[in-house]
Design brief:
- With 366 residues, the chain is an alpha+beta fold.
- It folds into three domains: 201 residues, Beta-Lactamase, CATH 3.30.450.40; 86 residues; 41 residues, Arc Repressor Mutant, subunit A (Orthogonal Bundle).
- It contains 13 helices and twelve strands.
- It has a five-stranded antiparallel β-sheet, with helices on both faces. A five-stranded antiparallel β-sheet has the order 9-8-12-11-10, with helices on both faces.
- Helix 3 crosses helix 7.
- This is Transcriptional regulator.
- It comes from Planotetraspora thailandica.
- One of its GO terms (molecular function) is sequence-specific DNA binding.
- It holds the Pfam family GAF.
Length: 366
Amino acid sequence: MLRSLGGIMTRPRNAWEAFQSGGEPDGVSGDIIKSWRRSQWSGVDPERLDVGHVEVGEESSFVRIAAPVLTRMADVLVGSSTCLALADLSGNLNWRWVSEPSLARALDRYQFEKGARFGEEHVGTNAIGVSVESRQVAMVVGEEHFKEPLHSWACAAAPVVHPITRRLVGAIDVTCKASDANHFLKMVARMLADEVSSALYSASTARERRLLDAFVNYRATANGPVITLYDHVMIADEAATALKLDQKSLWATVRAAGPAATLIRLSGTVSARMRTLTPGTLADGVVLILGGAIPDRRLARPIAAAAPSDHQHPPGLTPIERAEAEIITNVLIECEGNKSAAASRLGISRGTLYQKLRRYRLDGSS
């Protein structure tokens, strides 16, 4: 039988127990079960809290812009036993506001504090981890948490995608006691994410907005994948994103071609028509409309593959694929082998990363 806590219908504890004992749980959503399985596969201990912490450095631009938005909402939530938090791409807490001291002390006991690692691979099923993993608004109540010590809490989180680059920049979380949970938590998280997205757009530069406008205009009429590009910004549609082009390498190819170029080759099979946003200069960026190979000697040279490493990639890779393999290798080194962190930094899911590791033989296979 389901029981009601503050308006939320929660699942019986025996569903969690059935899963932990290897059975098939009833009355739990498919998304929660998928998250439980990912948590189990990641080796998360369901009985111990052991959240772990990271050193939170200088305030990120995301926190700098998002925190004032959440603080404005905080005035309405005083006395409501609610916590608002901001997490980065990996689910690490970067900022926290709590409505009352007693709740703050309780959250401290459960290690929900600045620097805490609430990515799914560390804590298992929780709203922050699920929203970062799925790129969707998530809500986790009571026994839906993978870790038993978190069963007394409820949380809703919404991912924040940058309105210019369309890349995930972090997540917004609303947390309260499970006994106080209601469906408004999810609504608040989604509303705050929308407001933060608007604030990010307002804080963007004129050049970034112009790139977005150009992207929207060309995407409506182009007969191929579209990218708008500048030296540190790249906006791409889904088809272009699937090619996993490296922004820095792509911009290097554009600069090598020069503002007068109209066609550039990205690989042996992918070329692009190029248009500068301002005629005769690369100063404001370019639009690339991707297409098939164009056999023309006047095309710009392909993107150079990264410097060779000791690892032997499988034969037959294109220059872009070799470059991607090297980028993945370097990011894994920077993340000290943490595949979830590497996937977040690369802007892809863990499943996609594992596919690429096998494809490029970076998983130890031969």
